[in-house]
Amino acid sequence: MIYTYYYTDRVTADVFKYFDDSKILFASIKSNPIDFFQMLFGLDFNTAYFHEQYYSKMGYWYRVNNSNFLSDTHIIIRFNMFVRLFSFGFYHVHNVFINFVALVGLVAIYKAFLPFFQSTKKILFLTICFIPSLLFWGSGLLKEGIIIFALGFFLIHFFKLSDKYSLQSVLVVLITSMLMIFTKLSVIAAIIPCLIGYVMHKKTTFSAFYSYAATIFILIAISFLMVFFTVDYNPFSILINKQQDFIYLVEKVDVGSAINQPKFNSISDVFLFMPEALINVLLRPFLWESYSVFTLFSALENSLFFILLFVVLFFRKKTMAHPSIFYFCLLYAITSALIIGLTTPIMGAIVRYKIFTTLFLLIALLMLLDVEKLKNSWFFTIFKK
Q1: Which of the 8 DSSP states describes residue 27?
Q2: Exposed end of the chain (fewer CB within 10 Å): N or C?
Q3: pTM surpassing 0.85?
Q4: Coil, helix or strand for 346?
């Protein structure tokens, strides 16, 4: 409701763009039901036919300068296409569906991490389910709701697989992986190093720190080797191309929240910009940079994060029960922040994309927090009074 209040233009508002596009596909259920189910399940192999009959009439099935690295529109359009079977074209019915999907996903994320937070399960629940930005963007008719759902079940069954093989878990991990790949590839790209580090720690005698450090070193080495074997599809080229796509968008469209970012032309440009990329995602927008209600809420959320960081520094655990989960979440937060910060020169987009970065960073901080020490401190007694 808040989103639709501020973004009333159906042509530019994401919640309407994909909803309206789905109407064109849904119309095929009357004229050609076979086409409907082929498009719904991605079996539209006769690309020339489907392009001529349907996709060419849509505004956002294809996107100019789309490297398909950070996001893809097809899944959310198909989601709306499916929900139209029950909604009779009423937008708010779609909103109810996506909210239910996101809620199930949030509960799944909570259950995935619950075994590692038995003594602080209530705080974990509050941390996951009441992050303002996650609730806001996850409750809209956007791709984020689907990603929350897929990520939750992916994590549950990945952790199960790391303990015991199960065909059901393998299938769920594969299906949710594909869902994330075709909805927002950056999420799965950021989580791959975390998965490798977690498994390495689980299956070897390496400490959690050295397992994740070794993973980072190996993946960076592989990325540099890929530069010599493939020019267009190594990680650095993908990052550079995606950044240039966004800069092209900024140049062609009047984007009020554009930030100054140099165009990358080489790998060295990417590495030199990494510190600023982290600052843009993890610390910005600052309160004085708030140009809209959305960036203001994000800036306030950042302020609360600084307060939490201050509390954790003073009331930190001496030892962690599950250091591997801490490094898992921290590595995801840093990796995703780098991907977003390096490729996105638009503050409004960063505010939306970084919701999963915030989620994992808060879970990592929660692992460091000594709740009992905090309860018995002067800091806590002030609030009790």
Answers
A1: T
A2: C
A3: yes
A4: strand
